[in-house]
């Protein structure tokens, strides 16, 4: 009898323990090679644990248990393969016999037998998991299963029976390792940095006109939509070139600045807020930035971001405007020293050349660590971003007026 040990893989450097989020199989099940058998939570990401061989599995660690990297959490008896194949042959023979009267269908997979993304969607939409048929391994409910169910129409009773029904019940769920780590980091930022926020407003007229004029041609030739995030990312990289301290970091007793811009883009995911990194954004075109952001956002939504894709970064951009936020003071993403907050675009009355006109205005906020960034640098940085968004030509000419570039000024 050949036994294969299933050990906890290392999610990344400096991580020594993880939590078994859930088992997707139980002891005695026959699994196939590379089949996903469990999900593991670390303080940076959720990972999938796969079977390294075909055979009968024995689960050694309980769900929700904290285990060390390298621990054996399951064993697979590979001698069961032949038995499994024999059963398959037997099932084929049975299939050839006349079908008996249909029996009541077994209950679909429970919420615990759903992927993290699917579970988040079930909770968000108030859908009873027992009503969704899973198409994944062993009937596991996937994101596409939930989407298909919702597309077919969700019963009103689903939402009415899930909270706000006057029952005065409550529910408790253990914090994930990722959520606990995020909480620790946010408290640490408030306690260890001299955080301050400066504000400004941006007239979005020019960018919106440019986007409306070229968005169809841009999509046709570049294959991605033209959004506002690429304009702000490009403006930030140019402003960082002029004010490198804003992208700097305090490491011990040294101030470190960088000759590149690795921009973190905060995206919402079923596991919470993730900040994947667009590396060397200063060298990318708007189309390349849009494509990279789309790729990372899809990975975040599906829980597929790697540790490397969320590690590092010299500056972060977060857009609360997509959720309707008018104004906020974003919290710095350590060890970075500053973060830009974008907000919703609202038509507001503003004075232009002595006349009151209506313009699409966005409020922007720059939170920064005053230990490394002076007020003059922070205000100048944010004003430079404002200038380049209000006059997109400056994005092409490195933050300068086109006339200055022409005259060599």
Strand pairing plus helix content: what structural class? alpha+beta
Find the CATH topology of the largest domain: Chloramphenicol Acetyltransferase
Q: Give a short account of the largest sheet.
A: 7 strands, mixed
**Overall CATH class of the largest domain:** Alpha Beta
Separate helix tally: 11
pLDDT < 50 stretches: 103-110, 156-161
Helix-strand topology string? EEEEEEEEHHHHHEHHEEEEEEHEEEEHHH
Shape: elongated
Counting copies of identical and different chains, the oligomeric state is single chain
Compute the separation of the termini in Å. 80 Å
Beta-strand proportion? 15-25%
Q: What does the radius of gyration come to?
A: 26 Å
Q: What is the mean predicted local confidence, pLDDT?
A: 83
Instruction: Tell me which CATH architecture of the largest domain applies here.
Output: 2-Layer Sandwich
CATH superfamily (homologous) name of the largest domain: Chloramphenicol acetyltransferase-like domain
Name the helicity range: 25-40%
> How many domains make up the 3D coordinates?
3
Number of strands: 19
Question: How would you portray this structure in words?
Answer:
The protein has 409 residues and is α+β, with helices and mostly antiparallel strands. 32% of the residues lie in helices and 24% in strands. The strands form five sheets. Strands 9, 12, 15, 16, 17, 18 and 19 form a seven-stranded mixed sheet that branches. β18 and β19 (355-369) form a beta hairpin. It starts with a strand and ends with a helix.
């Amino acid at each position: 009898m050949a036994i294969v040990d299933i050990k906890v893989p290392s999610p990344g450097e400096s991580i020594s323990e993880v939590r078994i989020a859930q088992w997707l199989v139980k002891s005695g099940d026959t699994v196939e090679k590379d089949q996903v058998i469990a999900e593991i939570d670390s303080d940076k990401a959720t990972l999938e644990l796969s079977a390294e061989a075909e055979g009968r599995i024995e689960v050694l660690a309980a769900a929700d248990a904290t285990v060390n990297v390298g621990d054996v959490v399951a064993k697979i008896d590979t001698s069961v393969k032949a038995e499994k194949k024999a059963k398959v042959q037997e099932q084929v023979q049975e299939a050839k016999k006349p079908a008996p009267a249909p029996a009541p269908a077994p209950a679909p997979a429970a919420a615990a037998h759903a992927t993290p993304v699917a579970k988040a969607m079930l909770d968000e939409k108030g859908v009873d998991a027992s009503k969704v048929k899973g198409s994944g391994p062993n009937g596991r409910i996937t994101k596409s299963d939930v989407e298909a169910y919702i597309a077919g129409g969700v019963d009103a009773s689903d939402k009415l029976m899930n909270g706000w029904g006057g029952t005065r019940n409550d529910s408790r769920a253990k914090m994930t390792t990722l959520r606990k780590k995020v909480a620790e980091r946010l408290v640490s930022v408030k306690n260890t940095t001299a955080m301050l926020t400066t504000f400004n407003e941006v007239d979005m007229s020019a960018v919106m006109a440019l986007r409306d004029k070229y968005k169809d041609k841009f999509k046709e030739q570049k294959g991605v939509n033209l959004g506002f995030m690429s304009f702000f990312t490009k403006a930030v990289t140019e402003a960082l070139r002029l004010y490198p301290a804003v992208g700097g970091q305090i490491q011990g007793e040294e101030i470190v600045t960088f000759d590149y811009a690795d921009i973190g883009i905060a995206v919402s995911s079923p596991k919470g807020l993730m900040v994947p990194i667009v590396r060397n954004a200063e060298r990318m075109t708007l189309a390349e930035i849009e494509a990279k952001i789309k790729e990372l956002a899809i990975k975040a939504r599906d829980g597929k971001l790697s540790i490397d894709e969320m590690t590092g970064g010299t500056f972060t951009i977060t857009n609360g405007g997509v959720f309707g936020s008018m104004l906020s003071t974003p919290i710095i993403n350590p060890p970075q020293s500053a973060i830009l907050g974008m907000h919703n675009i609202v038509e507001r009355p503003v004075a232009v050349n002595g006349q009151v006109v209506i313009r699409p205005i966005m409020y922007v906020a720059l939170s920064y660590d005053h230990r490394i960034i002076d007020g003059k640098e922070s205000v100048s940085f944010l004003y430079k971003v404002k200038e380049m968004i209000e006059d997109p030509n400056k994005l092409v000419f490195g933050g300068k007026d086109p006339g200055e570039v022409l005259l060599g000024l």
